[in-house]
Structure formats: C-alpha cells, structure tokens
Write a structure and sequence with these properties.
The protein is 38% helix and 18% strand. The protein has 328 residues and is an alpha/beta fold. It is globular and about 80 Å long.
Length: 328
C-alpha cells in the first residue's frame, strides 16, 4: 500500500512540475528587451488621423454588429465615406443574413504594370458586443490610413483595401464570415490574389514586465514585454511574412516579431486571414497579439484611450513600405 501511495505521490509531483513548465513557457523569456515605445516624432498628422478614426468607431458609434445593425450601418457609412474622401470608388459586396444585408466594403487601386495580380489589405469592422477600440477599430484606422497613403501613389499590382464584416462570433470561421464570402466569390471568378495582409488589433502596447503571453512552449523564443507588433503566417505564407518584415524594417526601428507555423497553435488563425488560408492563398496577420497581451479583449473596457497611437503610427509607417514593395 505504501508503495502505491509513493507512486501516486510521484505521479502527482510529476504532473505539477509538468504543468508549471508548460505555464512558464506561456510567458516571454526575452527579459532584456529595452523600452521601444515610439514617441511619434514626425508623425503628428498620422497620429491625429488614427486617433480620430478609432474615436469615431469605438466611442461615437460603439458596439457594431448584425445584432446592433444600426451601428454596423453607421460604421459602414463612415468607412465608405472616408474611402470616398481619398478619391476611391466604393463597392459593396452584399449578402443576406438574418433577413438583413451584410456588406464588405471594397476599394481598388488598379495596378499600372500587372493589374490582373491582386494584393489585398483587410480588416474587419464589426465588434464582439463591446466598443471595439483595439478589436478592431485600430486595424480599420490603419486600413484607412494605408489606403489614404496609396491613393496618390502608383502601384504595379492592383491593391484592394477591404473592410470585412462579420469576423466576430457567431460568424467566425463559418460560411457567413465576411472575408470567407469574399474569398469564395474571388476564387469562383479566378482572381489572381498574390498576397493578403490582414490587420487585426494593432493598437495596444505596454512596457510592463510579464505583459506578453504566448501559446505553450513559444515563450522562450519571444519578448517578455508587449511592446512590439507581430506578423503571423502559415507555412505557405512564410515568403510573404519575410517580405512584410523586410519592408517594415526599412522604414522604422519599431520592433516587429514573426511567427510561421501551423494553425493548430492557438490564436494563429483567429482572424480573416483564416478565410484566405482555407482556400490556399498566401496571407499574413499583422497584430498586437490580441488576448495574449490586451487585458481588455472582448470587454466593455476596450476603449479608445487605452491605445498607444504613437506606436500605431510607427506600425503604419512600416507597413507603408511593406505594401509598396509587395505591390510593386
């Protein structure tokens, strides 16, 4: 009996040690990373624009979804109006859901050399029963500013800027997800999609120790502080991840990390890039890592004043170069 009890005790100890090791690997181990939060020198107008977009979407409009349809429509009209003010012709991809019209918002910058080849920049504009400042007002703000930047630039390939509807539950990873509606139709049309950049929560940054979490076993390879942006791709998109990183670093010293791996890793496919991966297109998610960093994720406290607009501006500055080179 004593031998059995000893074996049980050893097993319990082994399990506890194993759980501790797994838990320890969910925190970043790169403790020596210095503060790299941008002060936004030279980005005053960009910072102002980003903050204005996020304030409008999260504070003035607020919770926006098929369940708050009037607010979803208000957000749609705001985004379309901004695109129009940049000189774009706005298209709406419509489909019916709950006897209501759901709409993706699409504008295009036609390429001058290879117009048949398409680069997509996307972000979802719906929320999960909350103000949605970081998720996903920050990304929509970035989408708008990238579209504004490219409005008076030439591109070799056609660039499509798309604000997707219905990324959030209960539509996430279903046929009713706005990005999946788009991808299915694009594939049926034979669109030659060369690259997709999905912006997903790009506004929350902190220099607090132990502020950055990861899926189990990844922590030892990444920073301990949540003061960086990350580019995430599957194995088929690793080349695109490298291009995003390369262009980004040419413009800014703001820290950018990357992860390339299977979608079974928790959180890796948690946005609209999933739709493109599912149909075999190369796609990258650019993110502040969402719930692995931001304590306000899917909460009523996800409000505009929580975000760091100076750091957001640096991220957009870096992505401008990435986008310019990828669409060349």
């Amino acid at each position: 009996m004593r031998k059995i009890l000893k074996r049980i005790l050893r097993l319990i100890v082994a399990i506890l040690i194993g759980l501790f090791i797994v838990k320890a690997t969910t925190f970043g181990w790169r403790f020596w990373s210095k503060s790299s939060m941008s002060k936004g020198e030279g980005n005053a107008q960009l910072i102002k624009n980003l903050k204005s977009h996020v304030y409008k979407l999260s504070h003035e409009i607020g919770d926006r979804s098929m369940f708050k349809y009037d607010k979803l429509e208000e957000a749609k009209n705001y985004i379309a109006g901004e695109f129009t003010s940049f000189g774009y012709n706005v298209e709406f991809q419509k489909y019916t859901l709950f006897d209501k019209t759901a709409q993706n918002i699409i504008v295009s910058k036609v390429g001058i050399n290879k117009p048949e080849e398409i680069v997509i920049v996307g972000a979802h504009y719906d929320t999960c029963f909350n103000p949605g400042a970081d998720d996903n007002g920050s990304a929509v703000a970035g989408l708008l500013q990238l579209a504004r930047f490219m409005s008076n630039k030439e591109a070799g390939r056609t660039i499509k800027f798309i604000a997707f509807v219905n990324e959030e539950p209960p539509f996430f990873k279903t046929k009713d997800m706005g990005s999946y509606v788009y991808v299915r139709e694009a594939k049926a049309k034979g669109e030659n999609i060369k690259a997709v950049i999905i912006l997903e929560m790009i506004g929350y940054y902190t220099n607090k120790p132990n502020s950055q979490r990861y899926p189990p076993f990844l922590g030892p390879f990444y920073p301990n502080k949540g003061n960086f942006i990350c580019a995430i791709g599957n194995f088929s998109s690793r080349g695109l991840v490298k291009k995003v990183i390369k262009g980004f670093k040419k413009q800014t010293k703001f820290p950018i990390e990357s992860f390339v791996g299977p979608s079974v890793v928790s959180g890796v496919d948690f946005s609209d890039h999933w739709s493109f991966w599912k149909e075999g297109y190369p796609a990258v998610m650019v993110t502040d890592t969402a719930f692995y960093r931001n304590p306000h994720y899917h909460s009523s406290s996800d409000t505009y004043e929580k975000l760091n607009y100076e750091s957001m501006a640096e991220v957009i500055r870096g992505l401008k170069v990435s986008l310019t080179e990828i669409s060349h």
